[in-house]
Specification:
Shape: elongated
Number of helices: 8
Radius of gyration: 25 Å
Strand order of the largest sheet: 1-2-3
Strand content: 5-15%
Length: 291
Amino acid sequence: MHFKKFDLATRVSAITIFFNIFLFILKFFSGIVSHSKAMLSDAVHTLSDVFSTVVVIIGIRLSRRGADKTHQYGHDRMEPIASVLLSFLLFVTGFAIGWSSIESIFSDHYSVVEAPGLLALVASLISILVKEIMYWYTRFAAKKIESQAMLADAWHHRSDALSSVGAFLGIFGARMGFFVLDSIASILISLCICKISIDIFLDSVNKLVDKSCDDAVVDQIVSIIKSQDELVQIDEIKTRLFGNKIYVDIEISLDGNRSLFDSHEVARRIHDIVEEEISFVKHCMIHVNPY
């Protein structure tokens, strides 16, 4: 199963890298020809997507490695680490776009700016369409293989689409003579990019510091356990995030007069059904107390 997931991740990443390189060439060429700084900045943003996708595929590959002598619980946390790196890349990109736009607003370069050509406007429209498709395509794959790093990469594509929207508005405004619109739109987009990067960072950190699961997941586990007739009571349930998986520790009470074999069978049955019913449970540990 891990190999199938990795094959899908590799295929999706290869496709997105190809289209990102195509868009970078298109944006860079149109930016040069049309004298559009907004389009050149957008080209650099697209190029950063290529590097982010490489980081994603490395993170997924490392996380899919099985347990070994030095990592007996596996390597699942390598993926949220990759997501943290991506969040920093997103934040730096957003901050750089915003800072550059603020500098432009407080400068007097608008009086000597040449209106960008039509090619840059067309290139921005193509970029918006392609990047939005890439966002949904990558998001679908990320949900299917339960990959946080790939989901972060999907948002990186969405941030590039937003950047292209800003470029389009700026270029359109500049062609109408309102050059400052380029910078204003870029600042708004940079704030959106930074917000997305912070959300990805916080979610990834939670998966690295043993944060508990949501109450809905715990309620689901309780419901599964209570479906067992032999169970007397649930003493305690502990959960912790581990990458994109969770660990579950459960203490139950059974009749102290039951044999060890019977008690073990009940615990084994609960263990199996919890891991079967909740696919993202990496391991369920059951401890039996005498009642």
